[in-house]
Write the structure tokens for this entry.
Amino acid sequence: MSAQRTIVITGATRGIGRATAERLAEPGVRLILHHRAGPELGQAAAAACERRGAAVRVVQADLSQALELQRFVAELAREGPLHGLVNNAGVYEGKDLAGTTEAEWARVLDINLKAPVFLIQGLAAQLQAGAASVVNLGSIMGHRPSAGAYPYQASKAAIHHLTKSLALEMAPGVRVNAVAPGFIMTDMNRGGWEHDAFKQEVESDTPLGRWGQPGDIAGVIAFFLSDASRFVTGQTLLVDGGKGL
Ligand SMILES: NC(=O)c1ccc[n+]([C@@H]2O[C@H](COP(=O)([O-])OP(=O)(O)OC[C@H]3O[C@@H](n4cnc5c(N)ncnc54)[C@H](OP(=O)(O)O)[C@@H]3O)[C@@H](O)[C@H]2O)c1
């Protein structure tokens, strides 16, 4: 039986990617769940989505490695039309300027910036065939500058800008938008929300008074993937409880 919509989510095993996968999982949806690490988390995410009625394929690739990125694209090329792509996989590196190394710069930029661009390039024909919606994960840190985390800030600011450029390139067939989360409780910043003083600092600096949950972001990603946003492209939406105001 052929599925109605095929959606690729990178970094789908944990955090925002996992919440997005579960949010989208329903009968008539085929999810291609990407992950980097061992198969256990991939299988767990797949099982959760299958319980909700989605068809699921799990694909492993380390997006910091050029050859793995190429292999990932080649594997997806056999999928036929794609209706959604969520460029979610990402890494954070929080060092100050003196501690920033070329190796970390390259790794963060490769995963957070290069991989989304070359995934869109490699899948362009399939995205056009499916009249797809692409959602890139930006960040409040690509919007509001702060000291430190230079490769991360650069990667996310660039994603916000390239979301506009790629929206122009891919129109009218494909929409490209970005979601820029504020502080969300995932493994990525566990060191922050498990630290009482920092946790409270973020809460008091956030008009809505709390840290975000992965589901807060998944709902907005689902909106950008849906027909409800059919006349929206090239936009980056801060989903941060007002922290970036
Ligand atoms: N959490 C926040 O507060 C926050 C704020 C702003 C923006 N964001 C953005 O939201 C996205 C998701 O973040 P998250 O908080 O959900 O992070 P997370 O819980 O740390 O999950 C990161 C995901 O990225 C994947 N990944 C990491 N390195 C990879 C690599 N080399 N190749 C392929 N995949 C790799 C991980 O796969 P494995 O599980 O296999 O390692 C994992 O699925 C990221 O782009 C992040 O920058 C998050």
Q: What stands out?
A: The beta strands are 5-9, 29-35, 55-60, 84-87, 133-137, 175-181, 236-239.
